[in-house]
Amino acid sequence: MRVATQKLISQFPLPLLGNNSENQQPELNFNQICQLIIQQLTALLPTLAIWIVYHDLETAKRHVVAEYLSPHLCSVQSTPALQTSYFASGQFHPDFAYLQAETWWRDDLQVLKITKLTASDFYHSYVCRISTQSLTTGEYILICTNKLLSGEQQQLLLGNAQILSNYLAMCRERSRQQQEIAALSQTLGQAEHQLRNPLALINLYAENLRLALPEGELQEQTILIRQTVDKLSAKLTDLLYRGQRANLNLKKYNLQTLIQECIQTLQHLLKEKELTINYPEQPVFVTVDSWQMKQVFDNLLANAIHFSPRGGKITCNWYAYSNEVLIEICDRGSGIAPEELKQIFKPYYSRRLGGTGLGLAIAQKIILAHQGNLWAENLPEGGAQFSFTLPAKRR
Q1: Domains and CATH numbers, the chain
Q2: Which pTM value belongs to this model?
């Protein structure tokens, strides 16, 4: 989901989606976004008071970000101050007690539609619901003004409410993804214990066979078995821990090189279904952990191969922007059913017969660790498209 803000005349830039440092995954601070929206509206509209109400899914607490700036009202302090959880603290402002009590709230208030409330003869109040959360009292932005808002001013308020709504949805979607990734990490941790011992046993028996066999082809095969086990063990370690480390093994790579290496490993599947993979001729460089990024391409391309019709083609595109690189992988299969779009990144959910349901979940975990986002959608002309972003630059 992208938030378009360029059409608004904003005096205060909205934050990027978190901290882009290499040592920390990005986090969305919705409270900070609320404060910036309030600052913008108080600068552009005849504001007496304004507050935003939302619920934090992680803490299950209700939050209110408020500002009061009305020096001509005797009980309003002249120095405005942003306050969080203002209503919950019981510090009701007497001039706006009716609005703060929220007895005016109705469940049938429409999302992203401005409603004028009749609360006072001294000020005008407007409310805009910003989500459809089925809670006792919903989430909204409310503004009190000393004069009626014009149509253009109401559109400005509505535009900022749209931004809030989009950011809130992104915060919740990211929180949901983080919970699923945490569950996946726990499952992989359990799987590690179950896989380490068999791998060590295979390695031990292969070494015993090597020592018992005469020099020749059979002894060379036992050496190959041991080398393969060592590689599997190293990859298991990378899979379990690299995505959780603060510092990934980041280097600059050409996307062409990464996808060429992945196509090489998938040649047997491509030949079996007579498929071709097209990708751009222009090189684009990204700073990634190459082994993990190959896992992403392997999972997404294998998925596209499975659902592509025989003799078709798979298209890869990438686009470099100032702050990010967008990569798209498209197939010409039957697409993804609407009810499956919300499920495909969940661990153990698979549309493929015999699939483990971990491929897409692992791909999402890796992309999140690289400070990007991964999503899926259906193409108008048929087929599915998996897209993910990566930072163009790292500080």
Answers
A1: 30-179 (3.30.450.40), 248-395 (3.30.565.10)
A2: 0.48
